[in-house]
Every structure is written in C-alpha cells, then in structure tokens.
Amino acid sequence: MKNDFRTIYGEDVVKTGEFHWAEELADDRGDGAAAEAAEDAEGSETAEETAGEDVQYVMYLGTNDKDTNEPVFTQEESMDTVRNILIDHFGGYTIQEANGGWVNENGEESREYTLVIYLSDTTLDEVHAAADDLLKTFNQSSVLIQTNPTQTEFYAG
C-alpha cells in the first residue's frame, strides 16, 4: 500500500480508505499479472502526479439569516454581494440561482433563495477563505462544499 487517503465532510463525517497501486492489486490476485500491471503502469502518471489536478468545487449558499430565517438581502443584492466576494477571492465565478428547502426544528418547511457557485483552478484553502466571508456576510451556520474530480479544458478552437 503506497498511500492512504482521508476525506473530511464537515466536522462529523469522515471517509477513509486505501489507495492500491496496480502492481499490488495484481500481486494480491496471485495470477502472475504483477509484471503485466507494472508494464501497463509505465509511462502513465502516478497518483502523486495527478493528485490535486482538475477539481471542481461547488458551494451551495443559502441566503436566509441563520437566526431569523429571513433573507439577509434581496435576491439582486445577494447576487451582487456574492459576485463581489468571488471576484475578490478568485477573479471570476460561475453562479446559478436555486431554491433550497428543508424541514426546520418545528417540523415546518423552510425555503430560501440559494446560490450555487462553481469554482475551478483553485484550492480548497482558497475556497474555505471565500466560504468564511460568505458565512459572515450572510450569517450562515454552514456552506455546503462539494469537491468533484473533473477534467477541465479551456477550448479555444
């Protein structure tokens, strides 16, 4: 086993696992395929070489105040405020409007205007720094952040 991986989803949920190299998997099978797997692996990038590349971060930002459950800003003000924060942190953004809903502690349905933010070519630390600003500005208890492996290309013809 060359590497272990650990992914943290918030403070409460942790997913752990192990990364197996192709040679080790072939050795585990015991069918003599280890040499073949090693040949196949030659010339290809290792996990260390590709780790951290082509990751898309998606943030879901609710816009209702966590204490009052009322909108912090109008929808237009929310969009402008998020745009400014994202420009300051990343120099660009992609945002979609959405509607979020959940059952609150009183058993009633709560709804809120939600902004879905797509970010590429950045790091999780930079995403967390922007999320800290969003949490404070919108008085949120949390911002949902998804980390998705992807393949990115800026195609220009």
Summarize the structure.
By secondary structure, the protein is α+β, with helices and mostly antiparallel strands.
Task: List key phrases describing it.
single chain, 157 residues, alpha+beta, Alpha-Beta Plaits, 4-stranded antiparallel beta sheet, 32% helix
Output the CATH topology of the largest domain: Alpha-Beta Plaits
- CATH architecture term of the largest domain: 2-Layer Sandwich
Q: Give the class-level CATH name of the largest domain.
A: Alpha Beta
Strand order of the main beta sheet, please?
A: 4-5-3-6
**Radius of gyration, rounded?**
21 Å
| Residues in helix, % | 25-40%
Shape: elongated
Distance between the termini: 42 Å
User: Number of DSSP strands?
Assistant: 6
Average the pLDDT over all residues and give the rounded result: 77
How much of the sequence is in beta strands?
25-35%
Q: Low-confidence runs (pLDDT<50, min 5 residues)?
A: 1-29, 37-52
Structure description:
The protein is α+β, with helices and mostly antiparallel strands and 157 residues long. It folds into two domains: 3-50, no CATH class; 55-149, Alpha-Beta Plaits (2-Layer Sandwich), CATH 3.30.70. It is built from five helices and six strands, in the order ββαααβαββαβ. It has helices at residues 22-29, 34-41, 47-50, 75-90, 124-138, and strands at residues 3-9, 13-19, 55-62, 94-103, 109-119, 144-149. The chain has a four-stranded antiparallel beta sheet. A two-stranded antiparallel ribbon has the order 1-2. A hairpin with a 5-residue loop joins strand 4 (94-103) and strand 5 (109-119). Helix 1 runs antiparallel to helix 2 (34-41) and helix 4 runs antiparallel to helix 5 (124-138). The longest helix has 16 residues, at 75-90. Residues 1-29 and 37-52 have low confidence and may be disordered.
